[in-house]
Amino acid sequence: MPRSAAARAFLKLNSQFSALNGLALLLAAGTLTPVLFAHPVDWAALGLRGLGVGLLAFAGVVYLLSRNKFLSRAAVNEIVVLDALWVIGSVLLIAFFGSVFTTYGMVILTVVAMVVAFFAVSQFASAAKIKPPVPIADVSMRDGKLHATVQRRVNAPANTVWDVMTDHPAYADVADNISKVEVLAGDGLGMTRRCYGPKGEHWEETCDLFEPGHTYGFRIHTEADDYPYPFSELSGRWTVEAQPTGSEFDIKIVAALKGNVLSKWLFATMAKPKFKAVLIDLADAWAKRMEREAKS
User: The domain spanning residue 230 has which CATH number?
Assistant: First the structure.
């Protein structure tokens, strides 16, 4: 289980609590206004609805973070800061503007602040247990394309790493997004292979770069009518370098997305954590096999 599991669990609870409060404020602002405020003004209900919208947006962001298996400590602590600001704001409201609220309003404000404080402390404590993954991965948008990279040190000689990396049928054993790989024709430059996704979808790839013992690359045939993913271009490069102790391999993926500017931005935003998780899992699974092969 990833060391981020506890932090992600508290973030998910935080998002659910925020969403419930946001919905209550948005849908029942008129009812809640006299419950919360001793002398409600005309715009109080509108203000509560605005706060509800903000809480729903916050809940969405926190939920997306909770879905990231390789969540960083810094990302969790950003939410901790926001939660702490909510608690501090609640304390200041009670201390300096308590007369604005009814007794029920004061109780509700206090209870919500206590729950948020619990989330802040729990998230901070669980974030301290998060350790960054061994593979170094990055996913970013540059020049209108999605660039995904991962590097991993491995305690195995370069020739062993190369043999594992070029065992194409076994690629499906280590890649979570691949269920099967078939070599269709050739060996080295010009080789073609067919990859299958977890739901049976498939596509073909052609080796367009091959330097024995060092690097190879594939171009995915995104132009095919039955290509299942929203990419207009997709290519990958796999490289191994010998190190003073062991080796280092890296993977570089470059993808151009289909659609308009908005759809590209939305997909890239959603795809970044997924790409990163897939690459980290792949690098770790490959490293285990490489080191096992080196010992045998």
Answer: 3.30.530.20
Domain range spanning residue 86? 5-127
Distance CA 113, CA 136 (A): 38
DSSP state of 98: G
Same domain, 274 and 164: yes
Is 122 found in the same domain as 173? no
Q: Which amino acid is at 260?
A: N
Count up the domains in the chain and report the number: 2
pTM equals 0.72
E strands, the chain, are 136-142, 145-154, 180-185, 192-196, 202-211, 215-220, 231-242, 247-257
Residues 151 and 291 in one domain: yes
219 class by beta-carbon count within 10 Å (0-12 exposed, 13-18 middle, 19+ buried): middle
Boundary of a domain, candidates 95, 127, 159:
127
Tally of helices (H runs) and strands (E runs) in the chain: 8, 8
At 86-133, the pLDDT tens digits run 999 999 999 999 999 999 999 999 999 999 999 999 999 999 999 888
Q: Report helix, strand or coil for 230.
A: coil
